[in-house]
Each structure stands twice: as structure tokens, then as C-alpha cells.
Design brief:
The protein is of the alpha/beta class and about 240 residues long. The protein has a single domain, classed as Rossmann fold (3-Layer(aba) Sandwich). It contains eight helices and seven strands; from the N terminus they run E-H-E-H-E-H-E-H-E-H-E-H-H-H-E. Strands 3-2-1-4-5-6-7 form a seven-stranded parallel beta sheet, sandwiched between helices. Strand 4, helix 4 and strand 5 form a beta-alpha-beta unit. The structure holds NADP nicotinamide-adenine-dinucleotide phosphate (NAP). The site of NADP nicotinamide-adenine-dinucleotide phosphate has 28 residues, from helix 1 and helix 6.
């Protein structure tokens, strides 16, 4: 039977690369985004891999918007085999200028939305299914001016470890990929001087391409034993 994966933030960057990878492996897909403008990945996945793809609007800043996903799965009597919790937000602010509203938004989007998404998805995840988070090197190696982001990603890493106990009775595994510097819009918007500084600390002297980390997602989705792990892929950042 065809397997189904749901990917949050699957329209761009890492999420899009994971969507292509899982479609290539034969998964049908539901991808979410905060805007349903990105028809291009949907059409391309359909054409290239002949998989069913649906795109849903669910804003990670609005926990209520999980209802859209819940409603769609219910209406179409669908069950999931993989849940990739990838979408996240950041605000780059100096500590002195930090705004309490933006701090809370970051926690809502990166921690609270995922927790309550998992809670809702318990009704839909098949036994044997896998949850894979996109964490971050910034959870482990503090960097730059995104304090709330680093702290929320550390919470994500802790969540992955803590959730094993709760998910095991459902026969669901949970793991995480923690990328370092992947060349998506997220990084492309950084000033050239900062990008150069980062590149100088990477063994390959370049940012990672999104498709270079999709092996890890595939492994975590498909391997039945690995559970509660954080796989760091950071190009040996700070090796020098
Ligand atoms: N790039 C890196 O170097 C790096 C490193 C470590 C971790 N990460 C993590 O990787 C994940 C993906 O980042 P990326 O680099 O692939 O970024 P990206 O290219 O900007 O893609 C972000 C994705 O998330 C969606 N998204 C953004 N805001 C959203 C919202 N409010 N509600 C729902 N969806 C939303 C976007 O949809 P739209 O296109 O519709 O906005 C897009 O599909 C994030 O968890 C990030 O923390 C990235």
C-alpha cells in the first residue's frame, strides 16, 4: 500500500527537498505552508514522481490552524506513515532590543505548534510510523543574534528525547535532523560578510545543499529501530 507523509513547511528549502526525496521513494505527500502560493513543487512532484500531493495552509503561528490538517485527514479518511515537522521561524534581534511578543511567537511556532500537532496526529499516525523533526545546530552551538530561535531548537531536541516514552505505546518513533548551514532562503538573506565568515568555518568551505541532508530524513523515516536520536549534519562547523 502507498505510504503517506505530511511535511510542515514542505514548499521551500529543506522541507521541499525532503518532499522530493520521499516522493521519489514512493510516498504520497501532504505539504503545509503559511501561504498556498507555491504550486510549483506540487506540480513538479506530480510530474516527476507520479505521486499524490496536497498542499494545505497551516500557519505555525496559529495553533488553531492544525484543524485544517486534522479536517483534511478526517474528511479523506487518510492515515500517515511519516510526519516531518520542519517549519520554524526566527527573528534576528539583539538581546537588548528583544521584543516579548516576538519571543512568544518563536515559542508558539517552533515548540507549541509541533507539540499540539503531534497530539492531534496521534489519531492518524499508523503503528510503525515515524516523526522526524528539523532541529538545528543552533540548539547545541549558540550563534549569532537569534536567542529565541536557539532556545526553541534546544527545546525541540529535548522534546524528541522526552516524547519517545509517550509515543512508544503507539509504536511511533521520533527523531531529529539538526542541520548546520543549509543554503536556503533562510541563509541567503544573510549579509555576504556573515556568509563568508560561516563558510570559512566549514570543512567544505561552503553551505550545505538541501538535498545533501535528505538521506538522514529518509534513514530516520525508514529504519525501524532508531529512536530518540538527533543527527547533526553541520559540515564540521568550527573544526577550525
Ligand atoms: N537553512 C538552514 O541553514 C537551517 C539550519 C538549521 C535548521 N534549519 C531549519 O530548517 C527548517 C526549514 O528551514 P529552511 O532553511 O528550509 O527555510 P525556508 O527555505 O525559508 O523554508 C521554510 C518553510 O517553512 C514554511 N513556513 C515559514 N513560515 C511558516 C509559517 N508561519 N507557517 C507555516 N509554514 C511556514 C515556508 O513556507 P512559505 O514558503 O510558504 O513561506 C517554507 O516552506 C526550519 O525548521 C529551520 O529552523 C535550517
Amino acid at each position: 500500500m502507498t505510504k503517506l507523509a505530511l511535511i510542515t513547511g514542505g514548499t521551500n528549502g529543506i522541507g521541499k527537498a525532503v518532499a522530493y526525496r520521499l516522493a521519489k521513494e514512493g510516498f504520497d505527500l501532504i505539504i503545509t505552508s503559511n501561504e498556498i502560493l507555491a504550486e510549483e513543487p506540487v506540480l513538479e512532484i506530480r510530474n516527476l514522481f507520479h505521486r499524490r500531493v496536497n498542499i494545505l495552509k497551516s500557519d505555525i503561528l496559529d495553533i488553531d490552524s492544525i484543524k485544517t490538517i486534522d479536517g483534511f485527514l478526517n474528511e479523506n479518511k487518510l492515515k500517515l506513515d511519516a510526519l516531518i515537522i520542519n517549519a520554524a521561524i526566527t527573528y534576528r534581534q539583539e538581546f537588548e532590543d528583544m521584543d516579548v511578543g516576538l519571543w512568544k511567537n518563536t515559542f508558539d511556532a517552533n515548540v507549541h505548534y509541533p507539540v499540539f500537532l503531534i497530539q492531534k496526529m496521534l489519531n492518524f499516525l499508523n503503528p510503525g510510523s515515524a516523526i522526524v523533526f528539523t532541529g538545528s545546530l543552533m540548539a547545541i552551538h549558540p550563534h549569532s543574534v537569534s536567542l529565541a530561535y536557539g532556545v526553541t531548537k534546544a527545546a525541540v531536541h529535548a522534546l524528541v528525547k522526552n516524547m519517545v516514552k509517550f509515543l512508544t505505546p503507539y509504536k511511533i518513533r521520533i527523531n531529529c535532523v539538526a542541520p548546520g548551514f543549509v543554503d536556503t532562503d533562510w541563509q541567503k538573506t544573510k549579509p555576504e560578510e556573515i556568509r563568508k565568515h560561516i563558510e570559512n568555518k566549514l570543512a567544505e568551505n561552503r553551505f550545505c545543499r538541501p538535498e545533501e541532508i535528505t538521506d538522514a530524513y529518509s534513514f530516520l523515516v525508514n529504519n525501524n529501530y532508531v529512536n530518540g536520536e538527533i543527527i547533526v549534519i553541520d559540515g564540521a562547523y568550527s573544526y577550525r
